[in-house]
Amino acid sequence: VMSCNPAIGGLGKGHLVREIDALGGLMGVVTDATGIMFRMLNTSKGAAVQSPRAQCDKHAYAREVRRLITTHPRITVVAGAAERLLLDDRGHTRAVTVASPDPAFNGVTLHAGAVVLTTGTFMRGLMHTGETQTEGGRHGEAPARTISDTLRELGFELGRLKTGTPPRLQKSSIDWEGLEPQHGDDPPVPFSDLSDAPRFPRLEQVECRITSTTPQAHEVICANIHRAPMFSGQIESIGPRYCPSIEDKVVRFADRERHHVFLEPESHESDWIYCNGIATSLPTDVQDEIIHSMPGCRNARILMYGYAVEYDMVRPHQIHATTMTRRVPGLFLAGQINGTSGYEEAGGQGYLAGLNAARHARALEPVTLGRDLAYIGVMLDDLVTRTPVEPYRMFTSRAEYRLLLRADNTADRLTRLGHEWGTVGAERWHRFQARCQRIEHLNAALDAARLDGRPLRDLVRRPDFTVNDLARALGEAPDRAMTTVLADRQYEGYIVRQHAEIKRHAAMEHRRIPADVDFHTIAGLRAEAAEALTRFRPDTLGQAGRLAGVNPADMTLLVVALDRRRRETA
Fold first, then answer.
1. What is the mean pLDDT of residues 262-286?
2. Nearest to residue 5, comparing CAs of 51, 52, 80, 55?
3. Residue/partner pairs of 489-498 with CB below 8 Å, 24 or more apart
4. What is the DSSP letter of 123?
5. Which end of the chain is more exposed for a tag (fewer CB within 10 A), N or C?
6. Is residue 99 part of a domain?
């Protein structure tokens, strides 16, 4: 179910989807199968920050995911709510009790040595539209009431966050004439390495239209700001900084007379239009005035009003970078429960959580992804070392090695690992091997070629040299492998420096910190550093060095203490 915007990808987020795909996940495959508009963002900028985005048919997306899961021979779907988590005598995960509308499963206990909680916005979910409050994690759906209590009883520190969604309009009630169109790319670039023309794209492509708020709407918002739950004190939770409500935009950017609103079709199967850009929890009468003041929407019919939702989450310093909780072995958390926002962030965590839960059940060592290897690794490291106070959203700016973590080279970074871990299937592995051969061929051809009497390997370093230029120079059709080869050549100097930096920091980054270290006993360590280290319990020196409150001098003392401990126990 696509609870909010029926879109996948975006800046930084598209990188996550490409990584999930390279590791064998389904998000990219399903997006390609159900996408109705594809765009590559930031194409005027460097390769590191270019990121794919797709508008999806939300009903087709949900149906395709359901089909893939329910037809899998080793998955049994139980429709119901997880009520309580049961532990064994050692404090390890043992089972989950279920409340289900299906009599065959209601009240049953599902025994499992590994459990993944992906609660979304449902833990004690409370929706707000003006002064009206309704329990629920999504429009028309009840909240999860007991899981929060269970987690608290187990000693977890919980927080509360907020997110919001905009109104939906009836397509046939909008006057589309005169609204600026926004087209997808032609030809579109798929998310998945398994997608090729002519099977991609599968669905008829659409366009979006752009309208905007008006000074009149801003006046209405300001006149009713006391009725907005975020400003009246009704909502105390913190929402996503980079996806503010329209009332927040109007207050924060008082000099702006207009804000863009993207009218995005939700499905070929419905008449619903998603109003991207005006998430709101203002009262319904105020939402009516805002919508009807926008160009093209004077007579628009609102099918669903915008609302905000507050929900419980677990402070993520209580999980390892594997997504397993520190407090309860065998319990894994992924998605909004860890303080993140968005389908893509949840999907990246879900891949690691599912993989490590399976490995835990089979008594195998857990796996992680480093900051130098994947945006998924950047995200997990940020969560366990910085425990966000607002919903965490991925951006390319969060990665210090983003030239190495491009959207075009995810397979080169991760598919071998996925194959080693058992999540990459035969077709993907075959395609990856073909890609490696293709890249080898292109590099050899590039090194041997000359253009206008000059070596082609020198010409491709120019920033204005495009993949189409390279294709013409080599006399070959452009493809995704060629895009990677060109980016590697154009940024070769920077890439070499980033690899050297990673190598310099490798010993410190991966050195383990024993779980039983008492940081308060380390001589000379500042109290602030000892408290931060005790609260976050970093697994490695690399994580410790990224904690707020820990400075280089503290790290020196920590290394000395660990060296002494190693000598004494040798």
1. 97
2. 55
3. 489/446, 489/457, 489/460, 489/461, 490/47, 490/460, 490/461, 490/462, 490/463, 490/465, 491/46, 491/47, 491/48, 491/403, 492/461, 494/403, 495/403, 495/404, 498/401, 498/403, 498/404
4. B
5. C
6. no
Query: Which SS3 state, helix, strand or coil, does residue 487 take?
Result: helix
Torsion from C-alpha of 327, 329, 333, 337, nearest 10 degrees = -20
Answer for the pair 195, 310: CB distance below 8 angstroms, yes or no. no
- 482 and 526 assigned to the same domain: no
431 in a structural domain: yes
Distances (CA, A) of 452 to 262, 448, 455, 473: 46, 14, 8, 10
How far, in Å, CA of 205 to CA of 215, rounded?
Answer: 33
Q: Which tens digit of pLDDT belongs to each residue from 532-545? A: 999 999 999 999 99
At residue 155, φ and ψ (nearest 5 deg) are 100, 10
pTM of the complete model = 0.94
Which pLDDT value is given to residue 1? 79
Structure tokens at 462: 């120019």
Percent of the chain with pLDDT over 70: 100
Query: Dihedral (C-alpha) 436, 439, 444, 447: value to the nearest 10 degrees?
Result: -150
Structural domain including 532 reads 511-569
Cα separation of 88 and 245, whole Å?
45
Residue 534 lies in a domain: yes
Q: What is the pLDDT of residue 24?
A: 98
Domain finish residue from 497, 522, 548 = 497
Mean pLDDT across the stretch 246-258?
95
**Amino acid in the structure at residue 401:** Y
Rounded Cα–Cα distance for residues 395 and 382 (Å): 12
